[in-house]
């Protein structure tokens, strides 16, 4: 009976070692799956990031022409306005200077109104 108990204990020890081995393999498998999942997630994130960057570049390039054409239209309009203002200045400057000189030269000396009231 002692041999049978010893053999039963030996079988239990072997079963325990086998179970520990299975648990260890399961842990290693789980760790490996986590590493694989992280690597796969990082790869997907990088792909998504690249796709969004390409989408942004396409959007930017499609609207860059609009911006440059709008800028050129604004520059043209500004140049036209400056030319119009310059022409207006050139046409009116002599008349304005003449009016200013006429007003300055038309001095009519008279007593101040408060001084007239004191004398009256």
Helix content, binned percent:
over 70%
Query: In total, how many domains does the architecture comprise?
Result: 1
| Largest sheet: number of strands, sense, barrel closure | none
Order of helices and strands: HH
Total strand segments: 0
Span between termini: 153 Å
> Which class of secondary structure composition applies to the elements?
mainly alpha
Radius of gyration computed on alpha carbons? 49 Å
- Mean of residue pLDDT? 88
How large is the count of helical segments?
2
Low-confidence region ranges: none
Characterize the overall form: rod-shaped
Give the amount of beta strand, in percent. under 5%
In short:
The chain is an all-alpha fold. 92% of the residues lie in helices and 0% in strands. The chain is built from two helices and no strands.
Structure report:
V-ATPase is a heteromultimeric enzyme made up of two complexes: the ATP-hydrolytic V1 complex and the proton translocation V0 complex. Belongs to the V-ATPase G subunit family. This is V-type proton ATPase subunit G. Keywords: Hydrogen ion transport, Ion transport, Transport. InterPro entries: V-ATPase_G. This protein has 120 residues and is mostly helical. The protein has one domain (2-106). It is 92% helix and 0% strand. The protein has two helices and no strands. The chain has helices spanning 2-105, 113-119. It is rod-shaped, with a radius of gyration of 49 Å. The termini are far apart.
